[in-house]
Amino acid sequence: MVREAAHTLKKSLLWDLLTTVDHKKIAILYLIAGTLFFGKAGLMAILIRIQLMIPENTFVTGQTYNELLSMHGTIMLFLAATPLLFAFMNYFIPLQIGARDVAFPFLNALGFWFFFFGGILLSLSWFFGGAPDAGWTAYVPLSSRDYAGIGLDFYVLGLQISGFGTLISGINFIVTMITMRAPGMTLLRMPLFCWTSFITSMLIVFGFTPLAAGLALLMLDRMFDGQFFLAAAGGNAVIWPHIFWIFGHPEVYILVLPAFGMISEIIPVFSKKRLFGYTAMVFATIVIGFLGFMVWVHHMFTLNLGPITNSIFAILTMLIGVPTGIKIFNWLFTIWGGKLRFTTAMLCASSFVPTFVLGGVTGIMLAMSPVTHLYHDTYFVVAHFHYIILGGIVLGLLGATYYWYPKMFGHCLNETLGKWMFWIFYIGFHLTFFIQHILGLIGMPRRVNVYLADQGWDGMNLISSIGAFMQGVAIILLLINVIYSAKKRPNHPVDDPWDGRALEWATHTPVPEYNFAQVPQVRSLDPLFYEKIHGDGKMKPTEPLGDIHMPNGSFLPFMIALGSFIAGFGLIMKHMDAWINPYIVVVLGLLVMFGSMAVRSWKEDHGYHITKENVEAMEREALADERNR
Amino acid sequence: MADHLSEPFEKSAMTNEEKVKTEREMRIQFIAFAFMIALTFLAFIAVGAEVAPPGFVISFIIFLAFIQLFLQLYYFMHLKDKDHGWANTFMVSGLVLSIPTIVALILIIGVVKY
């Protein structure tokens, strides 16, 4: 087949994936890795719910429970939600802005491998004396060297390394969207998914840096006898929660904003209307991004920081309700009067709206600092943030999966199975978490592994566990759907099954390496839809067909990240009875890492060209496919 | 096409006008550098002379630091130049986000509860 350009064809699948710098293949890598971590953390959630299903259960010990709970939170936020969102961002930002790749393809691969090795390092903790057990927040006295075991070392270094990857990708996305937009794609014509990803990337740059600093301090404390957080040695433990939440609150928006973007892509397509209040949506996103940095203390209302502090942060927190409300109403007005098609993607997107409102309302309740003393550390908080994360991010991700799957893999997912999945998931989700609001209000604390019978909690916990199992079944149904749809796929791939509006639907499926043979001219918001109505349904080209310059694949990103992994593991070996001096391992890792960087710097690599003839042949083949459909 | 990418050019491709511009830029860099050294000297003298009260010295040095920051960003790192709009946006939004955060953090962490 000519449709794969000559260079990738020579490689085996594995070697191609290890060395690729193509944003679409990196997206698939993110998708696979993210799904694996998602499955792992989901399984932990099921184990947690089995433990809490009946009072005084002895399914797992308290220590194991703490480890499960900490790893569930840490993996879900850093290693499942983030890469799954990055998968879609990687795949669709260049397509939606009419670019051939991201601005720095090499850095893109480097970001993925840093994330991947960071995740592996964190997961290795299970085999070396126990996972981190201080919660995903790792509050200090509990996570200091006096109280926490080696698991926390894995937490600190694993997150540090995967954080590098996230930072690198964030910077890459920002530069891509600033510099690589197609002619006519002004900032206020960018699809909302690009806009929310843009703000998310800004939040990553400003938010992950404090996290990196905080983790570095904790590492110094734990491994090099530092005393930043040790009260006995003159340190201050309160600084850790501050630093953590200065990062941690923006992190919530880092995750939910791209999901907002996905919803804003799906709803207009299935309502056959342009997005209501596009400009207001963009500015609401910016305002949310800004306010997200000004509210971190609302996680620490019970820390006795003083009434004025608490009131200021309470008001700032409630203020976020305003731009979020703007978004909710805009989605509703987009649906209103539209020509609705309730596919699985649309079911996820439209049910996202009321679910997210529920999470938002409990968020405003939690923002009231006087009352929060009642809710604090109860299941009410657990219910609240799961409404945001599952009802917001996961529903967005599921919707995006059904919506974008045909572009990524050439065939739609089965709709019947999809609707079964959606309803089982949706009902299971509300069973699990709605009842936890009540459990919290009648006093069940979070992060406990056992509870006594006959406090009125037994039935509700059982219902909650049943809901969790239903969600597990739904995700298994999704996997079955993936396999089933791949088996039943039509002979020819589909280009534009949903009557799409944004630029990604103007490409051929499978998307050729160079995305667009000729960079398209964008004439409006929803450029493809504009051409369907006012033009001939095809994007107008801005350049003649010609040779296309592409970057070479490289194994170096893998090696750089591998070096950091070895160095990180070496540092952790300080706390093991190792047969080798840990510093030898550290130096070895750093050598691999900086050596690979040096090779990258001094070895010249100007990429290669796909010739005009090759491009023409590939385009002809794609068009022939379209005619055969 | 990609054959001679790593070979140096024989002749500069800049026009005369551009060369004059670069020279002026060079002069500005030197002046800014001298000015910054002078500011550093002032800071040292302010402490070393031991004439002013510490409260004044501290605020004076912080004031100098802000001038220094401005010079550094706008003259040394070219933020003043054309086509630096995005770099400016990000620097300014970083400052807008981090200054309230740091001020709030210092206020909150203190012994006094507000």
Automatic annotation (TrEMBL), chain A:
<feature type="transmembrane region" description="Helical">
    <location>
        <begin position="105"/>
        <end position="128"/>
    </location>
</feature>
<feature type="transmembrane region" description="Helical">
    <location>
        <begin position="379"/>
        <end position="405"/>
    </location>
</feature>
<feature type="transmembrane region" description="Helical">
    <location>
        <begin position="345"/>
        <end position="367"/>
    </location>
</feature>
<dbReference type="InterPro" id="IPR023615">
    <property type="entry name" value="Cyt_c_Oxase_su1_BS"/>
</dbReference>
<feature type="domain" description="Cytochrome oxidase subunit I profile">
    <location>
        <begin position="9"/>
        <end position="523"/>
    </location>
</feature>
<keyword id="KW-0408">Iron</keyword>
<dbReference type="Pfam" id="PF00115">
    <property type="entry name" value="COX1"/>
</dbReference>
<feature type="transmembrane region" description="Helical">
    <location>
        <begin position="555"/>
        <end position="573"/>
    </location>
</feature>
<dbReference type="InterPro" id="IPR000883">
    <property type="entry name" value="Cyt_C_Oxase_1"/>
</dbReference>
<feature type="transmembrane region" description="Helical">
    <location>
        <begin position="239"/>
        <end position="263"/>
    </location>
</feature>
<keyword id="KW-1133">Transmembrane helix</keyword>
<feature type="transmembrane region" description="Helical">
    <location>
        <begin position="417"/>
        <end position="442"/>
    </location>
</feature>
<feature type="transmembrane region" description="Helical">
    <location>
        <begin position="311"/>
        <end position="333"/>
    </location>
</feature>
<feature type="transmembrane region" description="Helical">
    <location>
        <begin position="27"/>
        <end position="48"/>
    </location>
</feature>
<keyword id="KW-0479">Metal-binding</keyword>
<keyword id="KW-0349">Heme</keyword>
<keyword id="KW-0472">Membrane</keyword>
<feature type="transmembrane region" description="Helical">
    <location>
        <begin position="579"/>
        <end position="599"/>
    </location>
</feature>
<keyword id="KW-0679">Respiratory chain</keyword>
<protein>
    <submittedName>
        <fullName>Cytochrome c oxidase subunit 1</fullName>
    </submittedName>
</protein>
<feature type="transmembrane region" description="Helical">
    <location>
        <begin position="462"/>
        <end position="484"/>
    </location>
</feature>
<feature type="transmembrane region" description="Helical">
    <location>
        <begin position="154"/>
        <end position="180"/>
    </location>
</feature>
UniProtKB/TrEMBL annotation, chain B:
<feature type="transmembrane region" description="Helical">
    <location>
        <begin position="55"/>
        <end position="77"/>
    </location>
</feature>
<feature type="transmembrane region" description="Helical">
    <location>
        <begin position="89"/>
        <end position="112"/>
    </location>
</feature>
<protein>
    <submittedName>
        <fullName>Cytochrome c oxidase subunit 4</fullName>
    </submittedName>
</protein>
<keyword id="KW-0472">Membrane</keyword>
<dbReference type="Pfam" id="PF03626">
    <property type="entry name" value="COX4_pro"/>
</dbReference>
<dbReference type="InterPro" id="IPR005171">
    <property type="entry name" value="Cyt_c_oxidase_su4_prok"/>
</dbReference>
<feature type="transmembrane region" description="Helical">
    <location>
        <begin position="28"/>
        <end position="49"/>
    </location>
</feature>
<keyword id="KW-0812">Transmembrane</keyword>
<keyword id="KW-1133">Transmembrane helix</keyword>
<keyword id="KW-1003">Cell membrane</keyword>
